[in-house]
Write a structure and sequence with these properties.
The chain is mostly helical and 87 residues long. Helices cover 76% and strands 0% of the residues.
């Protein structure tokens, strides 16, 4: 996706919009890994460690909370980018 963002930044009307695109890309890539137990390697490791200590976390149990956390994180990131670059 980096080449796509680079192309969009090159066509952006000003440098500030380009910075907003890079921040949006970075924050979206970071927070999207919170959604399911297999979306990021850290999630897989955490579920494995929990299982080893006797606390089984099922895929749908993780996803139920993960989607909520992802939605809240992305909403906060959107507000941050909007306030920093567009107001």
């Amino acid at each position: 996706m980096v080449p796509v963002v680079e192309e969009m930044v090159a066509q952006a009307p000003d440098a500030r919009t380009g910075q907003a695109l890079w921040w949006s890309f970075a924050l979206g890539a970071d927070f999207s890994g919170n959604g399911t137990a297999v979306a990021a390697s850290a999630d897989v490791v955490a579920v494995g460690i929990a299982a080893r200590t006797g606390h089984r976390i099922g895929f749908w149990q993780f996803t139920r909370y993960g989607v909520l956390v992802t939605a809240l994180s992305i909403t906060m990131a959107w507000v941050y980018v909007w306030l920093r670059y567009f107001t």
